[in-house]
Design a protein that fits this description.
Radius of gyration: 70 Å
CATH class of one domain: Mainly Beta
Largest sheet: 5 strands, antiparallel
Distance between the termini: 249 Å
Number of strands: 8
CATH topology of one domain: Immunoglobulin-like
Structural class: alpha+beta
Helix content: 25-40%
CATH architecture of one domain: Sandwich
Order of helices and strands: HEEEEEEEEHH
Strand content: 15-25%
Length: 231
């Protein structure tokens, strides 16, 4: 069977279309497996009580990439947190940056992979509103139900206020100084007082009466003796 010129041209045309289609498919597949910024993801996590920033590379082409993390401060001032190399995988290859991040802090993550990727992960990473370590108050132990012994009361201090006996003793007049003058007899103690209590007048009256009676008795006795002599 001879092949005509027309059939040959048709076959070449078909092969050309097929080759072009294969090239397009290969181009699309290669671009699909190429490193892309969408293959990188950044997260702020906690490792116990310490903060970390984890960047995961899901680039199936395993293109080597450099990850750089910056902390954005006030006024646009940035501080570099760390820089690491990573080769991605279909399952995802994480790289960890130790960082004691503060709540609601902003970080810029930059990716550079050969001449394919040189840009930031968007949007910027903003940390959670709660820190990894929280200051928890120390619990106060419950009060014991057993009553504590009350401390012994010390003896009250002596009051500065004088007692009645002290007042009486302090207010009593000082004893008179000893004197050389003779003290009056016990029986004459009433004579130092007013005359109303003295017995001197009564004694003198009785003595006078006795004198008169005695004198009269002597007088009458002498007269009787004289009368007997004369008789």
């Amino acid at each position: 069977m001879s092949i005509t010129r027309r059939s040959a041209h048709r076959s070449v045309r078909i092969l050309g279309v097929a080759s072009a289609s294969a090239a397009v498919v290969l181009g699309l597949s290669s671009s699909a497996f190429a490193c892309n910024i969408r293959d990188f993801k950044a997260e702020a996590k906690c490792d116990g009580e310490k903060g970390v920033i984890v960047v995961t590379d899901t680039d199936a082409s395993r293109t080597s990439a450099t990850i750089t993390v910056f902390l954005q401060g006030e006024g646009g001032v940035e501080t570099q947190v760390g820089k690491q190399e990573v080769k991605g995988s279909a399952e995802g290859t994480p790289v960890t940056f130790p960082e004691d991040w503060k709540p609601t802090a902003t970080y810029r993550v930059h990716v550079k992979a050969a001449n394919i990727v040189d840009e930031d992960i968007t949007p910027n990473l903003v940390t959670p509103s709660a820190a990894c370590k929280t200051d928890t108050p120390t619990p106060t132990p419950p009060a014991s139900s057993t009553p504590k012994p009350s401390p012994s009361k010390s003896a009250p201090a002596e009051s500065a206020t004088p007692t009645p006996s002290d007042s009486a003793s302090s207010s009593a007049p000082a004893s008179a100084a000893p004197s050389n003058a003779p003290s009056p007899a016990a029986g004459d103690s009433n004579l130092a007082e007013t005359g109303a209590n003295s017995n001197t007048g009564l004694i003198a009256g009785v003595a006078g009466a006795l004198v008169v009676v005695g004198g009269g008795a002597v007088y009458f006795g002498m007269r009787r003796r004289g009368a007997r002599g004369n008789g």
